[in-house]
Write a structure and sequence with these properties.
single chain; mainly beta; six-stranded mixed β-sheet; six-stranded antiparallel β-barrel
């Protein structure tokens, strides 16, 4: 504590003196300023100029917490400062910012207020100091109290001392810059003697290679902070300690300097500029004046010629250079007003202003912010397009300031000063007394012909320092598009019997997910129409090694096979969960057909690498696919509802259509879109293959029988037979001779006789073994999946 009443802040000598610890790590949230508004010598509302940076640096080893402290809130408000002392000639014991004295002196414990004779195990200068957390909130006057944060949902929420609560990203940058430069080894920017070299280890006291800024969030920008559906604390980013989305911003002074240099103007004074520029666009050749107008309005800048140098300042900066009244001005014409004030008509002023800007949230979309004044005297609107990246709160603040600046500047002043006031220049502020009122005015023009004839406009600096602007809480639904989506078109049978029979399916994965994938269809390469939008990424991957054939409808692959996922995660399920329809997946065979499987065990064995065990192959009537090997690299899709259903009309079945897919929100002609052809077969209407094929031979021929299955409603155990699911029961049976069909038979029941006369005609004798394929027939689909059987006499 800094009040002289407790132990020193550096209290862990036994730990820090341990030989096992190479350095001293501390969190660093030292107050570097004592700024407040309305105090002439401390009127630094934004900490922007070079002198302000030097002020911050000097407070690293000075100011509050070094040689003085505020004993109470009343003392802080009145700036009554109490020296820090321990009464024993070692004030650094209680100075939480006197790191140097603590580091280069031996330490003595104090028992009952008295020092013990022997020092602790700490050896002066024995170890470097690491700043483990160094940061400042991005809020007005954040350097006054860098450890606090604003969160309306937290009981610990607070603004720094004397803060207006307005977002201020630059103070966050300046705070870190003060430490990095102050402790650095550059003689021009560092503070002499602040970071001494150790006589023990030969390095600096503060190791800048181990300076850790707080805080870089693992959640990716701009998904955080703009995806409020996922992260509810995104609203705290605007004034919080986060560096995400800010670290890449450019200093306004550097941007203006480079802009003028690009037009051949290098003698420009930008030392007084404040602000960070997240992004600035010059999209075409243009004059410097036009290029600069965007920055001029966004940051309210003035350009004046001062002694042959262009000086660029903020319109709201600085107090009045001098205050004048009737006794201070020159009378140029007898009887004329010494000070003339004219006010523009309100009907000529804007009632509404609109700012067109580029969204900062990663979409780079064109956005609009507006401000409106409640008045009936004007109906005018003013619009400006800013080629600057902004968030909605920043844009709203600019619009508000611009609107009220227009009204504040409706008053124009004309006066003449004597030649002795040669120091007055355009852009300076004057206080002009008119009766009992003092008007603050900005000088626009000066004409020198003996007297200095001045034309100025009234200005209200308060309009540029508005309070915190609430965010509209817009959420990013379309993340920046990187790469191309992986898309799979799936012909699937009915899985639960409720799906449309002719439906097709499409699944997609992409990282990062662009918020959605649009899928367009066309029968040619023109006239595309939106077929569906995939709202969520599917869990997709590929086979890591070939998958051998396996029986269907029983637990297989106890040793397992491997899947490498592109996106998502897999999880194990109980047997009952699997029987209830969980963990359904589709694997694509080399011929393009999809086999439906289910699995009970999924073990993560590497990044996105799973081992799948206890598998049910050939589900939902795809058992005919399980008899062939699936090559490595085959597509894998978990069927969990994330796939999107496509409406396929009967006329489009088995017809190759063009499908164009890419990120939602982008034109389908953009580079992120791809096109492919696919024909859906409407497998939902395909009858399942019969099972339990039996056959025996007698003098009449071969007697064949089988059991049919059903596509719909076949899971109940309390029914004598499963529903037919077809308009009528019918079958076709192909008799094969060495793979060649020699006869096709029809039946309307699950049994028939392959007559001996027919068999002799086909084979020359009544064979002892036959091969056959049995199909259930559908009036809509035709032949269903075949049951393949080889029958022999026993």
């Amino acid at each position: 504590p800094n009040d002289g009443s407790g132990d020193a802040i550096f209290h862990l000598d036994p730990l820090w003196s341990s030989a096992d610890i190479d350095a001293i790590g501390i969190d660093c949230y030292w107050p570097l300023s004592d700024w407040r508004d309305g105090d002439d010598h401390l009127d630094r509302t934004r900490a922007h100029s070079d002198s302000d940076l030097q002020y911050l640096k000097s407070n690293i080893a000075g100011g509050e917490g070094y040689d003085w402290y505020y004993a109470s809130a009343e003392d802080r408000a009145a700036q009554v400062r109490t020296p820090i002392t321990d009464g024993a000639g070692k004030p650094w014991v209680y100075r939480f910012k006197d790191l140097k004295s603590w580091w280069e002196n031996p330490h003595f414990d104090r028992v009952g207020g008295s020092e013990v004779p022997a020092p602790t195990a700490w050896q002066p200068q024995s170890k470097p100091v690491w700043f483990m957390e160094l940061g400042c909130p991005a809020i007005d006057k954040g350097a006054n109290q860098p450890n606090v944060f604003w969160d309306e949902k937290s009981s610990e929420s607070a603004w720094p001392y004397f803060s207006t609560g307005q977002a201020n990203e630059l103070i966050q940058r300046r705070y870190a810059q003060a430490f990095v430069e102050g402790y650095g080894n550059d003689a021009e920017t560092s503070l002499a003697g602040l970071n001494p070299t150790s006589a023990v280890y030969g390095g600096p006291m503060v190791d800048l290679d181990r300076l850790h800024l707080y805080v870089w969030d693992a959640r990716p920008y701009p998904a955080f902070p703009y995806d409020l559906d996922t992260w509810s604390d995104g609203g705290n980013w605007q004034t919080g300690h986060w560096l995400n989305g800010r670290a890449g911003a450019n200093d306004l002074a550097d941007v203006v300097r480079e802009l003028f240099a690009a037009y051949g103007m290098t003698d420009v004074d930008v030392s007084g500029l404040a602000g960070l520029v997240p992004g600035f666009v010059l999209d075409r050749p243009m004059p410097l004046r036009e290029a600069f107008q965007t920055l001029e309005l966004a940051y309210f800048l003035d350009v004046v010629d001062s002694g042959g140098t262009l000086r660029i300042t903020h319109r709201q900066d600085g107090p009045a250079l001098l205050t004048v009244g009737d006794d201070d001005v020159v009378e140029e014409k007898v009887g004329a007003s010494l000070i003339s004030l004219t006010r523009g008509q309100e009907s000529d002023l804007p009632q509404t202003v609109r700012i067109n800007y580029v969204a900062r949230d990663g979409r780079y979309a064109a956005e609009v912010a507006d401000a409106r004044r409640t008045t009936r005297s004007s109906r005018r609107e003013a619009t400006a397009t800013l080629a600057v990246m902004l968030d909605d709160a920043q844009a709203s603040s600019i619009a508000e300031s611009w609107l009220y600046e227009s009204w504040a500047m409706r008053e124009r002043l004309n006066l003449s000063l004597p030649p002795s006031k040669l120091a007055v220049e355009p852009g300076d502020r004057l206080g002009v007394r008119i009766g009992k009122r003092t008007v603050t005015a900005r000088i626009d023009e000066i004409a020198d012909h003996g007297a200095r004839v001045i034309e100025a406009r009234a200005i209200d600096t308060a309009v540029y320092n508005a309070g915190p602007s609430p965010s509209r809480a817009t959420q990013v639904t379309d993340a920046p598009v990187v790469g191309i989506a992986t898309v799979a078109f799936l012909d699937l049978p009915l899985l639960d019997g409720t799906e449309p029979e002719s439906a097709g399916y499409v699944a997609a994965a992409q990282s990062p997910w662009p918020g959605g994938i649009n899928v367009y269809r066309s029968s040619s390469d023109t006239g595309y129409a939106l077929a569906t939008q995939i709202a969520a990424p599917s869990i997709m991957g590929t086979l890591a090694a070939p998958l051998a054939p396996s029986p269907s409808d029983r637990w297989t692959h106890p040793a397992g096979f491997d899947i490498r996922l592109i996106s998502g995660e897999l999880a194990s399920r109980t047997d009952q969960d699997v029987f209830d329809g969980r963990n359904v997946a589709a694997i694509q065979h080399e011929n393009g057909a999809w086999e439906v499987i289910q699995f009970a065990e999924a073990e993560l064995i590497g990044p996105k690498h799973y081992r799948i065990r206890r598998v049910l192959r050939g589900q939902a009537g795809t058992d005919g696919e399980a008899v062939t090997e699936i090559p490595a690299g085959a597509n894998f899709v978990l069927i969990d509802g994330r796939e999107s259903q496509l409406e396929i009309t009967p006329g489009d079945l088995n017809r190759a259509l063009n499908w164009r897919y890419g990120p939602a929100g982008r034109d389908f002609g953009s580079a992120q879109f791809r096109v492919t052809q696919h024909a859906f077969a409407g497998l939902g209407a395909r009858p399942l293959s019969p099972v339990h094929v039996r056959g025996n031979r007698d003098i009449d021929g071969w007697h064949l029988s089988w059991i049919r299955r059903t596509r719909i409603g076949g899971d109940r155990w309390d029914q004598a037979d499963v529903p037919l699911s077809e308009a009528r029961e019918a079958y076709e049976i192909d008799i094969l001779d060495d793979g060649t069909v020699v006869r096709t038979l029809q039946a309307d029941t699950p049994a028939l006789v392959y007559a001996a006369d027919d068999a002799i005609a086909d084979f020359g004798l009544l064979p002892e073994a036959i091969d056959c394929r049995i199909y259930q027939m559908s009036e809509a689909f035709g032949r269903g999946a075949p049951a393949i059987a080889s029958l022999a006499t026993t």
